[in-house]
């Protein structure tokens, strides 16, 4: 079976660009701050990207198009590739995509206080917008996929890219997800659900309040090991296996017994040829909501040795919804490459019996596991290894 490796990595978060995000994450900094991007809604802790140049944060959401272009170009550069790439596969997802643009258009129609917008280009705002932008920038004439699966979108996109290469459909795939989810409707919806925090994001903490929305995403350049070796590319790591299940239980709450989530993890490990004891680090979903953190902790405690290090990075970047799984995989690859365990930023008083990483520390990480859970009962897991298996 074809070995699939990662040879390029692009990342943007409210902490900044890839390298800036990494430095701030290791320094246990958080991009979360009180903001009021919409005057009709009360201030909330949010993780807004700003201008990514180290200037003061701006109090308005980022542009999805700009973020997508930035990630495509950064990932290709990191992989040592340049357009046109006619045979490149794409699996670029977003759970919210251009929702902000549609809300702006709807507001203009409803208020009538501005000139009505030109809708001749309304097709530009369809959910596959990031994938289409990536296709135009790369010049691909190959397979283009635009997955959308709530907070599992990014992990699912990377898994789809992995399968395209494993099945021999393509040799190289640009995969990941991007989100600019801070919109009035999204904020109002999560507020109505009682899911948003009032002061900050504290994953696995006894006093956690809820999630904090964040902007950002991550793209990976995937390719077969043979392709990477032929062009002498630098390798971040290898994808060993992936698995997804569904609770079929509730529109937003996880199934209490976590049986289907456990099946996803066990299946992922089986496909990767690993046992739970082989995992050196778990990048948890860790949303800082009461239900998710409790259910995820119970799941990890049940399946893994108590010594396995666990952390969530959402206390630093906020919850980027559909892009969160892609960011988790990117962070795990960087952690393996630099042999550093990532801190669970925001954690002050742990509630659960997990080996939560309280501060940045060095450790050899050969195998890591990334978890992602989404509304609708969607469960996902991807296993990574630091160096390719021949």
TrEMBL record:
Superkingdom of origin organism: Bacteria
InterPro entries (UniProt xref): Beta-ketoacyl_synthase (IPR000794), Ketoacyl_synth_C (IPR014031), Ketoacyl_synth_N (IPR014030), PKS_Beta-ketoAc_synthase_dom (IPR020841), Thiolase-like (IPR016039)
Domain Ketosynthase family 3 (KS3) per the UniProt entry, residue ranges: 1-386
EC number(s) stated in the UniProt entry for this protein: 2.3.1.179
A Pfam family recorded for this sequence: Ketoacyl-synt_C
Record keywords: Acyltransferase, Transferase
NCBIfam families: PRK05952.1 (NF004618)
The protein's name: Beta-ketoacyl-ACP synthase
Organism, as annotated: Roseofilum halophilum BLCC-M91
């Amino acid at each position: 079976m074809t070995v699939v490796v990662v040879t390029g990595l692009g990342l943007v978060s409210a902490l900044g660009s890839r390298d800036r995000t990494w430095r701030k994450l290791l320094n246990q900094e958080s991009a979360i701050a009180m903001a009021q991007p919409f005057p009709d809604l009360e201030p909330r802790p949010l993780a807004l990207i700003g201008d990514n140049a180290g200037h003061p944060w701006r109090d308005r959401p980022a542009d999805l198009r700009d973020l997508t272009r930035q990630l495509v170009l950064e990932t290709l550069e990191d992989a040592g590739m340049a357009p046109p790439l006619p045979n490149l596969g794409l699996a670029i997802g977003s759970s919210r995509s251009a929702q902000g643009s549609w809300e702006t258009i709807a507001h203009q129609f409803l208020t009538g206080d501005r000139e009505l917008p030109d809708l001749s280009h309304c097709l530009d705002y369809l959910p596959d917008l990031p994938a289409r932008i990536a296709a135009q920038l790369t010049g691909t004439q190959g397979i283009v996929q635009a997955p959308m699966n709530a907070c599992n979108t990014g992990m699912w996109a990377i898994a789809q890219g992995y399968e395209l290469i494993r099945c021999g459909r393509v040799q190289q795939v640009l995969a990941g997800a991007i989100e600019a989810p801070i919109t009035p409707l999204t904020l109002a919806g999560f507020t109505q659900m009682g899911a948003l925090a009032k002061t900050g994001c504290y994953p696995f903490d006894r006093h956690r309040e809820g999630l904090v929305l964040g902007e950002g995403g991550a793209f990976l350049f995937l390719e077969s090991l043979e392709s990477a070796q032929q062009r002498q590319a630098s390798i971040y790591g290898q994808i060993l296996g992936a698995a997804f299940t569904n609770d079929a239980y509730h529109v937003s709450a996880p199934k209490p017994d976590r049986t289907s989530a456990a099946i996803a993890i066990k299946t992922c490990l089986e496909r990767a040829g690993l046992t739970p004891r082989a995992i050196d680090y778990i990048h948890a979903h860790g949303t800082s909501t009461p239900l998710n953190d409790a259910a995820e902790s119970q799941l990890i405690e049940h399946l893994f040795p108590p010594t396995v290090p666990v952390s969530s990075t959402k206390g630093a970047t906020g919850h980027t919804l559909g892009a969160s799984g892609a960011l988790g995989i990117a962070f795990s690859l960087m952690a393996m490459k630099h042999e550093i365990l990532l801190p669970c930023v925001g954690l002050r008083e742990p509630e659960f019996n997990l080996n939560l990483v309280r501060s940045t520390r060095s450790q050899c990480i050969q195998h890591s596991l990334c978890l992602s859970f989404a509304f609708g009962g969607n469960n996902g897991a991807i296993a990574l290894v630091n160096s390719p298996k021949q």
